[in-house]
Write a structure and sequence with these properties.
The chain has 261 residues and is an alpha/beta fold. It has a single domain, classed as Rossmann fold (3-Layer(aba) Sandwich). The protein has a seven-stranded parallel beta sheet with strand order 3-2-4-1-5-6-7, with helices on both faces. α2 crosses α10. The two termini are 24 Å apart. The N terminus is likely disordered.
Length: 261
């Protein structure tokens, strides 16, 4: 690790001290890996657990879902959800700086789950060991979030189109900053991959690199695909059949996340 990287890691450690909120960033260089779906539903699982354990003793929720995407995907999703069914607070910065640090240092908050943009602004000329993030409002917003990150969730799909980008995110963005991470296999289609050959391939890709991962994938179900349109969260899914399986997939992610925090 270079002197510059060591100074950055030290700065990150200082930023993470002195606050009760743990910050989880859902990040992947490539779009289409399901970052927003994971961010919203993991926040829902964490928020519901907090309510059930009577952790919410003040106004508002101890869990916040936050989005830095200028398109405001998380905000649009949460706005569709019935207010009484939303077990967390949410905020969308649209890449404005200075908003999330205030939330992260709020003593009433316990978890902040951050959804990042559908694509990562990368400097194509950045050399190995240098910060590969580009020079834009979105890139600066991501840098700010990463200064506070306690854990990163990195989605990867059985389709190989996301594998290199997941590795880039881990090796070039997270590891140099000393941010712990957890790989989440998303969108596994149990109908098309009945023998789980493709699932085994992506697991092998992850394990060969010694990356920590959630043991089981988030399976691809129709109920997930319509959740944004219908304004639903996994915490509202029925407790039977496919809906129960779909719900349990995200509960496992949330549980593994908590174990790492």
């Amino acid at each position: 690790m270079t002197p510059t990287m060591l100074r950055a890691a030290a700065t990150d450690m200082v930023a993470r001290n002195g606050r009760t909120a743990k910050v989880v960033v859902v990040i992947q260089q490539k779009g289409g890996a399901g970052k927003s779906t994971i961010a919203v539903n993991v926040a829902a699982c964490a928020g519901r657990s907090a309510v059930l354990s009577n952790a919410d003793t003040a106004e508002g929720s101890p869990v916040v879902a936050a989005g830095i995407d200028v398109q405001g995907t998380l905000e649009k999703w949460c706005a569709r959800v019935r207010e009484e069914a939303l077990p967390f607070d949410y905020v969308v910065t649209r890449s404005k700086l200075g908003i999330l640090p205030q939330i992260m240092t709020d003593p009433e908050r316990r978890r902040v789950v951050v959804d990042t943009p559908g694509f990562m602004d990368i400097d194509p000329d950045a050399k190995w060991g240098e910060d590969p993030l580009g020079n834009s409002r979105t890139a600066d917003a991501l840098r700010e979030v990463l200064e506070y990150a306690d854990l990163a969730l990195v989605p990867i799909t059985p389709s190989k189109i996301t594998w290199d980008e997941a590795e880039f995110t881990i090796e070039r963005v997270l590891k140099p900053r000393g941010i712990p991470f957890l790989v989440v296999i998303n969108m596994h289609d149990p109908g098309k991959d009945k023998s789980e050959k493709q699932l085994d391939k992506v697991k092998a890709f992850i394990d060969e690199r010694d990356y920590p991962r959630v043991a089981d994938p988030i399976r691809r179900y129709t109920i997930h695909e319509h959740a944004y349109e219908n304004g639903t969260l996994v915490t509202e899914y029925k407790m039977s059949g496919t809906a129960l399986n779909a719900r349990e997939d995200f509960m496992r992610v949330a549980l593994t996340m908590e174990q790492m925090l």
